[in-house]
Amino acid sequence: MNTLRFLLIFVTFIAYGYQYEETLQLVHVFLRHGSRTPELKHSYPNDIYQLEDFQPMGWGQLTNLGKQNGYQLGKLLRGQYENFLGNIYTSDIIQATSTDFDRTKMTVLLVLAGLFPPSRSQVWDEGLSWIPIPYSFEKDEEDYHLRRVTAYCPAYVKELNKVYNSLENKQLEEDYQHVFQYIEDHVGKPIRSADDVLGIFQTLYAEQHMNLTLPKWSEIVYPEPMTYLAGLQCHYENYNSILKRLFGGRMLRKVIEQMNAKIMNTIQPTGRKIYLYSGHEYNVINIMAALNVYTPHVPKYSAAVMIELHKLQDTNQFAVKVLYARDLNNEPEMLQIPGCETICEWNKFVELTKPHVPVNYTKECDSEVYLD
Ligand SMILES: *[C@@H]1O[C@H](CO)[C@@H](O)[C@H](O)[C@H]1NC(C)=O
Ligand SMILES: *[C@@H]1O[C@H](CO)[C@@H](O)[C@H](O)[C@H]1NC(C)=O
């Protein structure tokens, strides 16, 4: 009896696993770079750590731990998509894109190293288990896909300012006035908003990951309530449909176009299976927000969100699944798009995401178009 039960479980497992692998069609991955040194723009006058403590990396650069993070994320993705991707790297299979920062470019290289270790036939140096895999990036000033939209989208800035001026935020600033003041007194620069707190949070978080002992004063505000306030700032940046549409929407639109090309069999190159976008915490956040699966928090270093296009075996319909690799120690978790089952049937997915997909992004960013 027991044997039969085990056999049944085993067969079910095989069948399910088989179907799962067979149905995957295309994957989009948005990831945050690995652990890094603090950024100059988020440094503060009274920090007990200065540039010399961040050498030889310098400001805002990957640490050795950060390099491990990126490589491990690549391996995690390899484990997740082993059967789908196969063992042989071809240039068609993947398109990798980064923002114009050293740390995101280095991270994408590390992820690629973990994701595509050379198959036997692709080893070209016995001492090196690595093959070069290209990636691309737009110059920061010309990056209209992954860079922060505050740099070039006036309608977004206008809407975000409305959120900052909202009663909810004014109330928050009042409630946390003593916390802001406390931090300000210790860091030696003005702390007047959740955004200012986020900057200091980033620095403390970076130093913590470098195993530097955090200053005594920080103990009563870090991790809480600073982690809460930092998460809230990220939430504000994606607070409503207009912000979601203008921030994460630009990439959501691209993701949908690419999935649609796969469905229509017009994808170029035809062997494309995965798109990788190496960016910052906000890239991970804003795509989740546009998909309505974001809950306020700051994604950890090397966190990644995966958007999978599947073909359902029984109906031949397409469907979308969203997974979140919150950290490297746990299995990626499934995120449920509100209004959908864990797997979201394609037409339903398109319908649900429509409010966050810009039609003419350039036009919508013109601050005169949105008349309140
Ligand atoms: C920090 O300390 C922990 C515990 O000793 C260690 O496992 C980890 O490798 C250290 N990390 C760095 C970046 O040195
Ligand atoms: C989008 O809007 C801009 C500015 O209003 C306009 O110049 C452009 O032609 C529009 N693009 C499309 C594809 O309609």
From TrEMBL:
The keyword Zinc-finger does not apply. Residues 1-19 form the signal peptide. GO terms for molecular function: acid phosphatase activity. Its EC number is 3.1.3.2. It catalyses: a phosphate monoester + H2O = an alcohol + phosphate. SUPFAM superfamilies: Phosphoglycerate mutase-like (SSF53254). It is an enzyme of class 3 (hydrolase). Keywords: Disulfide bond, Glycoprotein, Hydrolase, Signal. It comes from the Eukaryota. Gene3D superfamilies: Phosphoglycerate mutase-like. Belongs to the histidine acid phosphatase family. This is acid phosphatase. It comes from Popillia japonica (Japanese beetle).
